[in-house]
Amino acid sequence: MTAPDRNRLLERFLGYVRIGSQADFRAATYPSSPGQWEVGRRLVNELHAMGLSQAYQDAKGLVHAFIPGKVDSAAIALIAHVDTSPESSGDGVQPRVIANYDGGEIYLPGSGKSLSPSRHEELKGYVGKTLVVTDGTTLLGADDKAGVAVIMEAANRLIEAADTRHGPLYLLFTCDEEIGHGVDHVDIPSLGVACAYTLDGGPAGELDIATFSADRADITIRGINIHPSIAKGKMINAVRLAGIFLERLPRKTLSPETTEGMDGFLHPYEVKGSVAQATIQLLMRDFQTPALDEQERLLCRIAKEIEAEFPGAAVEVKRVNQYRNMAEGMAREPRAVALAEAAIRAVGIEPRLTSVRGGTDGSRLTERGLPTPNIFCGEHNAHSLEEWCCVEEMEQSVATVLKLIELWSREKPS
User: Fold this and answer.
1) Which of 149, 212, 294, 375 has the fewest C-beta atoms under 10 angstroms from its C-beta?
2) What's the chain's average pLDDT?
């Protein structure tokens, strides 16, 4: 990649992350935050400036663009999401570029903390690289604005190389992926593609071909409120019952803090309430979809125990479907993974097929019939105030995408 390309890629990324676009699961709108509209408008303007007249933002905020093919081959789609996680602040992002990283601690001036190789051992492999970090008060938004920047740069370079023969290419930028609604309004048949790829991954070489199956549990605990001066034998404090419910969840197993690899977990991530009513929101995750039923049974058993111990209380467990393990549907289009592996290898990296302990838009797209593996783009410490990304890995991702487009140009439509 030439220096101007590298600078353009970095400047794109820095521009995107400075726009606050956190998803908000409480919002009644789609997308759930105005910043997602703003990022989308910027992308449309940039796509038009590249010469892509068939680029637009639809009524739901999704950005679509089509690059006509120069050969009669199978079409593919490239996908990234413009929203960022609601788990850490994403407003007023102040990215800082660390050129030629020296291997030491990286000071985060807003928080007074630092990124240390002693706590984040992967940093030891990035000496001499260009890193982008936060100031420590917000997340960075590399998840998934690194992927957005990679797709935009790849498209720009493809258009600039006017003599390059390639097949039809669809670009799609989604909203509210972080709260499980990224592809709610995607009409898969209208894409007309053999498969898709999300650019929403970690270190160079990773190719995610399996994800968690995921649901959410919304737990509502109703107590009885009365003035504390006359509460004896009458009050049932929903806040206390929420604490009891959480205490009865497994702690040494089945939690994110105690599991790894192919283990699933239950993850309470928000608790709110008063004496009269408390709510717990909890993530249910496992690579084996039937295991989610077992998790639900555990939650319902705890709910019934509490109701029995505190007559008059009511504990409701509502399960909300989110996404399914993409591995279950990947076999529909074997070329999706095989050509991605070949593209990664062609740019000088040994591909690593991974099972991601999370999900992507590709999880739901694959579940709905469109195989969608996930390609690396240099994201690290996602959803964290210590999030960072590597510009060289973003460059490698761009090169991988362009090679992938080339390989698919040799494949006939199915």
Assistant:
1) 294
2) 95
